[in-house]
Amino acid sequence: MRSLILVAVILQLTVIIIECHNYKFGDMIAFPRRCGCIKKPVYKHFAIYVGDKPFPGKQPGQDIFHHTLISLTHFKTGCVFGVLGEKVKHELDNSLDNETLGTHTYIRSTDEVITERINNVTRDGCGGYNPLTNNCEHLATYVRYGHKISRQEDTWIARICRFTHIPIRLCIKYEEALERIEKNALQEAECWENPSCAHLAG
Ligand SMILES: *[C@@H]1O[C@H](CO)[C@@H](O)[C@H](O)[C@H]1NC(C)=O
Ligand SMILES: *[C@@H]1O[C@H](CO)[C@@H](O)[C@H](O)[C@H]1NC(C)=O
Fold first, then answer.
1. Of the candidates 51, 83, 105, 167, which lies 20 to 30 Å from 195 by C-alpha distance?
2. CA-94 nearest atom, ligand 1
3. Amino acid 97: pLDDT
4. Over residues 56-84, mean pLDDT
5. How many other CB atoms sit within 10 Å of the CB of residue 109?
6. What is the pLDDT of residues 77-134, one digit of tens each?
7. Phi and psi at residue 86, in whole multiples of 5°?
8. Mean pLDDT of the region 148-167
9. Any atom of ligand 2 within 6 Å of the Cβ of 117
10. Is pLDDT of 147 > 60?
């Protein structure tokens, strides 16, 4: 009897650990990247949570869709399914919901439309990586809202140009820094899913 109770307790603990996040299909998930010397996250990686919903080409256990590094040898990226992972910090970030920026209001699309966008991107590819126009946050906002935007809100990277009063789009420093940091973050991301390359993580 006692061992039965123990098993029940262990099972329940397992359930609690596995379900400690309660992300829903279509949620935007941010992965803040920190560095000891800077208070704010340096940079944020983004993914869309898809849970166990089946998609063509999605493997069992995969639960996110993101723009990430798919070849370490050539800095080649792609929009693929991946695993949330237990070791890295992540958090819900649907902060654009119902926000109006400029002339656009960001409304969460229906599950059907989000599913169709993921299928289309999987079929057509998501184009070459560009820190200013086609990064991992652009993919996530496109899938959830149908409109690409990258704010890198509340990160160190977003502040680089504000000090110099240069429009962010024209700021070479921002572009260079974001690309360097993202390249590093993408290599790290690759390593969560493939421990054999852990030595490459910066
Ligand atoms: C956004 O607007 C929709 C429709 O009015 C509403 O159902 C939803 O709760 C709003 N979300 C937030 C985060 O305010
Ligand atoms: C997906 O692609 C099809 C045709 O290729 C297109 O008609 C449709 O509008 C796309 N769906 C979305 C949500 O963009």
1. 51
2. 13
3. 98
4. 87
5. 18
6. 899 999 987 667 899 999 999 999 888 999 999 999 999 999 999 999 998 888 778 8
7. -105, -20
8. 67
9. yes
10. yes
Answering whether pTM is above 0.70, one says yes
Name the residue with the closest Cα to ligand 2, atom 7.
120
Closest listed residue to residue 182, CA positions, set 149, 157, 153? 157
Amino acid at 116: E
Ligand 1 centroid, distance to 98 Cα (angstroms): 6
| Beta partners for residue 47, in sequence order | 29
Q: How far apart are CA 49 and CA 62, in angstroms?
A: 10
The ligand 2 atom at the shortest distance from the C-alpha of residue 113 is 13
Are 48 and 26 spatial neighbours (Cβ–Cβ below 8 Å)? yes
Indicate if ligand 1 lies below 6 Å from the C-beta of 95: no
Residues near 176 by Cβ (< 8 Å), separated by ≥ 6? none
Edge to edge, what strands does the sheet with 76-82 contain?
Answer: 76-82, 64-71, 38-49, 28-35, 91-92
